[in-house]
């Protein structure tokens, strides 16, 4: 029979998604630019379900039931445009193209607009969870028309991850680029989560004196509490691992230069355009960049640090254990700030592009199938359920109480880090954000004064309406600049 969906691009992600659809009873048409990949998939997994392999684009399109659902899983960027150009002429109004690659949301907006003119629904779907997720259930963030959401929703729900309460980890995010935008911010939050965990590890090692396998145990304990998450779980696994060749902790034989594929960077670039302070994500992107500057680091090793006399808690002693508890508080508080910033960016994107995104639903569909899955996300959903127009996650009473209870320890940890010369850009940027938001008055008033002095950029007053300028070069009287 005709296929329910077709997938073109059968590298690891496309192949695994095809198998996932087939396992859920769908008939899946298969196509790849290089036919050898299609043949290999049929050979290795053809028995798992109903597949319709196609050698040519025409054959592929002809094998799809109408309205056609054609999913593209090729390398993001130019290849995606090339595939759209190849297939769009073969489709009819009402058909759907789903791009499951890691597209930039601006590309998705352009493609959606161009295809809409031809009557074709373009669905930019962010897919999280890597290879394993694609096969066993990813978190899926589709954007596009309401019609396409209705036609695709049940299929995406079937193959998606399920949260602990059984809810599918997918929802229609909003029009055009909304899905890829949310996927991008998800990746940015992932960067921030990873950086905060790395800082916690660094402090436990350099300040408290714990060994990696002891830190693994601490993370395992944390994973039974409010920090319960996939990233904390795998952190314990990585830290407990011993290098077979040298017998040393694995973490000590890995080169300390973190790489990135670019979605974290996009998050920060777009945040700059939207004027949203995502300092935690930005510090995480910069920390990876800094780690990669080997020459710069080598040239800086001689720079002075804190006095050698700085006391160090001895590993596993009571001081170290108390410090570990403080680090847990600092990590949790900083994590609340990261999510506050990330959700602010999603809200800003939604407002700017008219997407009308339901923020509580976003947290709910990240509970399974993706790298940032965590018990914590239920709390975010609860916060938005309690108040859908929540100005910020920090305005939620429970989060405010928790961060308030953590703040003394959080400050103590940042102080200890500074005293010991341990860089904690994530913890300290999060704390600075928290303190800036709480402040009655910010020194931005002085900044405005300086701007008015050198550039006549004007200012507002706290005590009456209007726009003003002081004649700094003259007698310094104030004039109305309205
Ligand atoms: P790749 O990103 O490695 O892309 C390989 C596929 O793209 C092959 O099927 C290749 O065909 C096809 N392709 C290329 Br390259 N140029 C093409 C062109 N001009 N015309 C037609 N096909 C072309 O595959 P992947 O790692 O499976 O990822 C697929 C998408 O999913 C990407 O956008 C990726 O960013 C995204 N993603 C990946 C992950 C992950 O964990 N890997 C996670 C989430 C999202 P060929 O066989 O003929 O060379």
Automatic annotation (TrEMBL):
Organism: Actinacidiphila acidipaludis
Matching InterPro entries: 6-PGluconate_DH-like_C_sf, 6PGD_dom2, 6PGDH_C, 6PGDH_Gnd/GntZ, 6PGDH_NADP-bd, 6PGdom_BS, NAD(P)-bd_dom_sf, Pgluconate_DH
Pathway membership: Carbohydrate degradation; pentose phosphate pathway; D-ribulose 5-phosphate from D-glucose 6-phosphate (oxidative stage): step 3/3
First-level EC class: oxidoreductase
Record's catalysed reaction(s): 6-phospho-D-gluconate + NADP(+) = D-ribulose 5-phosphate + CO2 + NADPH
Protein name: 6-phosphogluconate dehydrogenase, decarboxylating
Enzyme Commission identifier(s): 1.1.1.44
One Pfam family this sequence matches: NAD_binding_2
Record's signal peptide: none
UniProt keyword annotations, A-Z: Gluconate utilization, NADP, Oxidoreductase, Pentose shunt
Free-text function comment from the UniProt entry: Catalyzes the oxidative decarboxylation of 6-phosphogluconate to ribulose 5-phosphate and CO(2), with concomitant reduction of NADP to NADPH.
GO molecular function annotation: phosphogluconate dehydrogenase (decarboxylating) activity
UniProt family annotation: Belongs to the 6-phosphogluconate dehydrogenase family.
Subunit structure comment from the entry: Homodimer.
Residue stretches making up the 6-phosphogluconate dehydrogenase C-terminal domain: 179-473
